[in-house]
């Protein structure tokens, strides 16, 4: 049976793996290492023996706790190959001249977390990864990309839209989330969307980005009848109508911005 997770959410409740992941772990733990390796190497999700990355991570974490170096050394390369595949889709050479280095940095950061995991003070470090690995791993990627953007002053292209069950967000909803992100520190599982959204804001053309930041982040009015009041329009040296047009153009781009599923 899979070891129970001990990490708690902000509301105090324990993280829980999805039932299908829980069942897959229970099954895989009964297999010998050779059988686990075969399953870990399968790449097609349609294959009945496909092992989810959450399941693979759990087996490796348990092997580490049991000091089973043979299992760790056998299965860890398969986990890292999957991580590389995720990164090469998201960090492409056409967008980043140093894409390979960035991918390497993200992998290194993840390996450092894995090395710390299981220590008494970090026993639950990767618990959330066993629930939603892609979302948790995405947090490392986002943090590294933000560092790169800040260092080089380059922009990150907007991602393609992703359909979800909730449908498209309105422009006001998207920009309102930016205001929320400015006030609330990002949590690992709850505010990664907002962290990416901030990056998307700064990837806008300079005039649109400035309009959004002034109005939605810093709280400036678009324009005012008071000639002494500083507004987004006066800050940018344009009319209020121009600011409204810039916000409208920005909103149309940001409304396409979706969280990866």
Could you walk me through the main structural features you see in this protein, from its secondary elements to its overall organization?
This protein has 261 residues and is an all-alpha fold. The protein folds into 2 domains: 134 residues, no CATH class; 84 residues, Orthogonal Bundle (Arc Repressor Mutant, subunit A). Helix 1 crosses helix 3 and helix 7 packs across helix 11. The two termini are 28 Å apart. About 12% of the residues have low confidence.
Low-confidence stretches: 153-171, 179-191
- Give me the oligomer status: single chain
Q: Which range does the strand content fall in?
A: under 5%
Distance between the termini: 28 Å
The total beta strand count reads: 0
Task: Bin the helical content.
Answer: 55-70%
Overall pLDDT level: 80
Structural class of the helix and strand makeup? mainly alpha
Categorize the overall geometry.
Answer: elongated
**How is the main sheet built?**
none
Question: How do the SSEs run, as a string of H and E?
Answer: HHHHHHHHHHH
Radius of gyration: 22 Å
How many structural domains?
A: 2
Summed up, the helix count is 11
List keywords for this structure.
single chain, 261 residues, mainly alpha, Arc Repressor Mutant, subunit A, 11 helices, elongated
Summary?
It is built from 11 helices and no strands. Helix content is 57%, strand content 0%.
List the helices and strands and how they pair.
Elements: H1 19-28, H2 33-41, H3 53-65, H4 69-90, H5 99-116, H6 133-152, H7 171-183, H8 192-202, H9 206-217, H10 232-236, H11 240-254
